[in-house]
Structure formats: C-alpha cells, structure tokens
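To assess whether the prediction recovers the assembly geometry, we first specified each molecular entity separately, as shown.
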Amino acid sequence: MKVLDDFSNIFKRYDLDLEVTGEARTVSQDSAMQEIAQFVVDGDDDGILPVVKKALESKSPIDIINDALIAGMNEVSRLWDEGIYFLPQVILSSDAMNVGIAECEAKMGKAMDRKSKVVTHTAEGDIHDIGQVIVNALLNANGFEVVNLGADVPVEKVVAACKEHRPVMVTGTALMTTTMTAFPKIGHQLKAAGLNIPFICGGGAVCEEYVTSYELGVWGKEASQAPGMAEDATSGESWESMRDKWNG
Amino acid sequence: MNSKERVMAVLNHQKPDRMPCFGANSTVTYEQMEKAGAYWPEGHDEAEPMAKQAMAAHTVLGFDAVRLPFCQTFEAVALGCIRKPGKIREIEGIPGIEHPPPYKLDDTPVFPADFLSRGYIPELLKAVEFIKKELGDEVLIVGGIIGPFTIAGSLLDSVPILKATFKAPQKIRPFLDVGEKAGTALAKALIDAGADMISCEDMTASPELIHPKTYKAYEMEYQRKQFDAISVPKILHICGNVDPIIEWMGQTGADILSLEPKASAQLARDKCGPEAILMGGVDTATTLFMKDVATVKQGCEESVADGIQILAPGCAVAPGTPTENLLAMVDVAKAH
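The predicted structure of the complete assembly is given in tokenized form:
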C-alpha cells in the first residue's frame, strides 16, 4: 500500500454531496486471483474459503497471498483512504484476508514470510481498541507480523512483549487523555531496557506535541501511516529520524 | 439574564444578553474536584460528590449549565454490563465497561422492569435532586443519557457490533431497541428529578466508526423515537467528524446539535436549516487539555465565526484540563 503524501483527499472525504462513490479496481488479470481479491474487497470471510481452496489446486499459496489476498486488501486500504470505505468494511476485509492467509499457510506447512515484527497495543484503561484494529489490519495487509496485545494493556506488559519479540517498532493507541499518560512511561522503560525502537502513538486524545515530548515517541496522525512507518523502521531508520520525517 | 434565561433565549431563537457556555458532555476536572471538595471515584457512584462535581461547572467555571454524569456506564451497568473502575495506578479516571460484554449477537437482550433502581442510577437521580435544591431555577441542569447505538455497542462490544452492521444488521435491532428504552427511561427519570435538558451522547454512531448509511437506516429512527418521548429540550452529541450524517442528525428532533471542531458548523447550518441550534467550540484533547489560554480563545472565536451559538468543549473535558483554559471559554462567550 502506498502511504499518502497528500492528505487533501482525506479531508475532502466527506464532501458536500456526502455520497462518495467509487469502485474497487481490478487487481489481477487472472480470473481466479481476481475472484479471491473480490471476496477480500467485499469482506466476505464466509465465502472466501472455498475459492481459496479451489485456487490452491492450481496455484502456489504464496502467489495467492501476494497477488490475491494482499492485493485485495491494498485495494481496501485505498478505498478507506479515499473515504469510500468505512471502518466496519476494513475490519471485515481484514478478516476475509486472514481466513485466506491461514488456508495458504496450512498448505505451505509454515507461516508466510513477514517483513518484520510490530507490537501494537491500546493504552491501559482504554477499552476502545478501534484505532488499533485498523492499524493491525493495514500492517497485516502490508506483510508485517503483528503482535497484537489488544486493549487496556499495562505498561509492563508492553515492555515485556517488546523484550520478548524484539519488534522493529511498537504502536500505542489512546482515545482518552487519562490513559495516554502511560506512553511516556513506556518510552522511558523501553529506552532503559536498551530497546531504542520507534514508539508510534496515536488516537483521538493524542497530539503531536505530547508524543514528541518523550523519548522514542513518534506521532501517528492517521492509521494509514502505519505501514509506511513500519517500512522505515524495518530499513533501520532511527526513531529520531522517523520523528523528523513524519512529524513537525 | 441569569444562566437559565440565557440558554432558554437561544432555544427560543431570541437574542440572549450574551452567548451561553456549557458542556454537552462531562466538564469535571481534577482542579474543580479540589475546589468542590468532592473527588473520584465517589463522584461516579455517590449522589452528593457527584452533585458537587457537576455544580463546579457553574460555581467554579461560571458555565451556564451543569451536566452529569461523567462516564458512559449508567445505562449499560443497569442492563447487565460490569463497570470497570477508572483508576489506573494511583490516578482516578473515567469508568468503562469490563470485557467480555453480557451479550452475543444471537442473544435476545432484556430490558429489566426495575431498570431505574439498578446499578448507579438511583444515586444519579438523587444527585440531580440535590443540585435542584442547591441551584434552584438559576442554572440549567443537563441530564446525560447514552444513545441507542452506543448502549448496543456496550452490550455487544464494539468490533462485533461494527461487523454486524454489514453482515447481519437486522440482528442489531433488538439491541438498539433496548438501548433506546434504557436512554428514554433514564431521561424521563432525570427530568422528574429536576433536569431541565437532556444531552444524548452517542459516540459509537459516529461516521468514524459506522457507515453513514447504517446511521440513516438504523440508528436514526431510534434516536427520533427517543427524542419524541422526551419533553424537555434535547442535545444530540455524536463524536468525531459528523459531516456525512449531520443532515440526518438534524432530522432526529434534537433541539441542539453538539459538534466537535472537526465537524463543519457551516455544513451543519446548510444541511439543518436556521432552526437547528449549534453547540461546540474547541477540541478537548489537543486544545483545551494541551494548549494555552490564547489558543483556546482563538479556537473559540473561530467556532463562533463558523456559526456556533452555544460555546462548549467539543466533547468530554479531559480531567487534567487546566481551569484557566475553561475560564477562557467563558471569557469568549461573554464577548459575544
């Protein structure tokens, strides 16, 4: 998925006519691949399994993952970026993609190769993990392994998960100002543990000034930035240089 | 004009002596708790501290109305959810709902006959009576209820209900029905206890969570039914950028539409016509909580220029918000 350089479209997503229309583009010239991609675009996690099974009779699992499942999810990301798709559709498409990936992995006998690991969590006390759900879906669709800690996660658990999994970056979501105060503590403890990884923080209550006031913090304005940031972190960019690039 | 007359003037489309300022959502802060001598967690579940904290909006800030309660759990707990305390480490915060939720999508939710005597509702009603005795008819009392979709989301959990909006939307109806009954019953009881106005918060109905078509096809009729049944003026507050649904929000029967600054007040005016009363101001997290008096004032002035008629925090006030930033809102209101 290409990360938007220009946010004008997002701000225009609810234009005066309200009815933003648009259709999914064709992602593959191969009809079997296109059919699978369409189930992802439609968010049909019940219907996708038979078509993936059928395709596996003649195609390689890795091709199906890349050219149909992930390609379909990238199309969903585009529709979301453009304001055509809404949150429930992204969640359902992600579910459908994951059903397909699980089937392909079963056929391969191993998990698909992932670019790198990212730990995601929603702050302690915050039970609304909606923003994180989108981040997980987009990271997954872009080939990253997501270690999903879920909602209402204590500081120590986030730090312990980073020590265990050694991710290239960690994300935190907070919708409430009472919960985002956990973020500086996480940044501090990661640093103390020698884990100098970018800590991407976003969500309704979280603003740039707050996140850039503590070490490791990089402000995530939109969930759609997560894959691009994960690419940067995977290629070894430091949290300081990512902050310069994505914030300010 | 006293505070109540000022707000009523706006509701009657008459010119007030100056713009009113109050919150559609919670306005409680730690600094106000100190001044009121009433603290959390008691303010979430005991009548007297709850009343004292709500009144601080008028006695400390000079807001034209006081608003209670301060979390979104009252109806949900009375319907079977378990309240999760707001305390994180040593700091008292805003209660939420424990996981797992009480229902799955195929269940039939129940509206209990003794709803109003369940959970923390009796203390909330006593708090309203307490405020009525203390503040009399000078200051408006705003009773808070939660919208049908948000209550349904508490009963089912958010991700399952969001998926159901596309996969099995008909299955949500019984939950919306119970959510509507709960909010309406609470609203009537709040009015009997002395509330002058009802504010309905419906955060899960936001286009940032559900498709605008889901709002139009499902949630809107329940909100309309609810507002039809409530005799006093109503505020409808939906979080986030509500531009895609503002036209329909204006058709629910709400007298006042409460907007976050990320929603367009100008669009709301265009879509909802001259009768709609618009309430809003500055972002509660990124401006009121984080910034200074000058930035708050500037944000408020911009909102007024966009057509806001009642100045208000854009959503629930963050409890760590400095008092001076809230006082700055009142200063701007006094200048208009």
